[in-house]
Write the structure tokens for this entry.
Amino acid sequence: MFPDIEVFGILIQWYFFWKYVAIILTVGFGLWYIFYKKKAAISFTQFLLLLLLTIFLCYFGGKLLSYFDHYTRENASFSLEHFFEGSFRWYGALLMILLGIPLMGKFLKMNVYNCLDFLVLKLCLFTAIIKQACFFSGDGCYGIYTNSIFGMYFHYGTAPSMLPVHPTPLYDSVFHLLFFIFLYQWNDRKKYDGQTTIFFFTGTAIFNILLEVIKRNPEIILGLTLCQLTYLMILLVTVFYYFLLKKENKFNLSQAYS
């Protein structure tokens, strides 16, 4: 979208600029939330362990789905070099975090759902910021052609567009910023631990399934892209956690009144 900038003779790529901005602001928000708002029942040590475990799950899931995406496109054989040096798929990171909830609870030995309500606020904020990396760098993650008022030209980057296209990273960023504001306010009024987590994964899954309709990714099966299939899995797992939490919440209420 925009050419890379040069500061004091140093070339700064937009992708790395927004990546580090997202990391700094997200970690900063997490620390503020713990020590000043004091809404997350989590110690500083637990915060660091949760952060490291989340980063590991994100990295593994993002790389795994990136490799699978490469395999479906290129029909390539497995290669550790491509696994570690390939791109990163955010939906893979989210799926791995969701599947890793039982591991988090067992490893950290705490109320993992309360901590996840805190964690998804960070994930939502991180998504809102990191999508600017795709938008500014113009690496081809924009959408299909459109002659609507939303159409934009991506003149710079590795995959410039000759026609106006949907700026899908911008849509993604705006949605998750507004979603973050909603979740931040809702988290103070949640009825049980884990409810904010359910809202986040449900909302981001439905949004991305719909957003994929105006993207240019290839279909894998049943007219769905790998991104849509993954978010459908996220949605199904989230529904499972919803009924699990609903059952646990009813049990806790019955114990309280018995």
Notes: Residues 253-258 have pLDDT under 50 and may be disordered. Residues 5-41+115-250 form one domain.
